[in-house]
Amino acid sequence: MTTPSQTVGPFFGHALPYEGGPEIVAGARRDAIRVHGRVYDGAGAPVPDALVEIWQADETGTIPRGPGGLRRAVGGFSGFGRCPTGADGSYWFSTVKPGPVGAGAPYLAVLVFARGLLKPVFTRLYFPEDAHDEDPLLAEVPVARRDTLIAEREADGSYRFDIHLQGERETVFLGF
């Protein structure tokens, strides 16, 4: 007999965040970038109790295979980060811009855990300056929706990626 799924929260503030979770690399590292944004619900209200995870390759396109997600060595890179959202739905990461893995454009794999979801939702964050025409996943996304997967470069050099869980501006989510 199969047990039905249950919603996943809101309990993230207690059990899942950890010190240094959003710092995949130290912000002082020369090639560090800042990725930030907000998580919104279907009505456009910020989600204050979501949890955002990213998984990524390093700057050469190499996917990390060793331990170290929770306790990174100084100057090390694990390719994994986790950040709870603030009261305004905001999150942030200090990381490096990944290199391409295979034939596609560089990206961050993004998971969002939030109240009301039975399972996390998966999406990708692409960078605006990269060529997207050749990316196999983006080629499957309708042109009118692709911008929901591409971060905006801000004046300070950071990348803004807002995530809309539902509604008119809903982010494209991937099924696995």
From TrEMBL:
SUPFAM superfamilies to which the protein is assigned, alphabetical: Aromatic compound dioxygenase
Keyword Metal-binding: no
GO molecular function terms listed in the Swiss-Prot or TrEMBL record: ferric iron binding; protocatechuate 3,4-dioxygenase activity
EC number: 1.13.11.3
A Pfam short name: Dioxygenase_C
Record-annotated Intradiol ring-cleavage dioxygenases domain positions: 32-167
InterPro entries xref list: Intradiol_dOase_C (IPR000627), Intradiol_dOase_core (IPR015889), Intradiol_RC_Dioxygenase (IPR050770), Protocat_dOase_a (IPR012786)
Keywords: Dioxygenase, Oxidoreductase
NCBIfam families named in the record: protocat_alph (TIGR02423)
Family per similarity comment: Belongs to the intradiol ring-cleavage dioxygenase family.
PANTHER family in the record: DIOXYGENASE, PUTATIVE (AFU_ORTHOLOGUE AFUA_2G02910)-RELATED (PTHR33711), PROTOCATECHUATE 3,4-DIOXYGENASE ALPHA CHAIN (PTHR33711:SF9)
Protein known as: Protocatechuate 3,4-dioxygenase subunit alpha
Species, as recorded: Actinomadura rudentiformis
Upper lineage: Bacteria, Bacillati, Actinomycetota, Actinomycetes, Streptosporangiales
Gene transcribed to yield this protein: pcaG
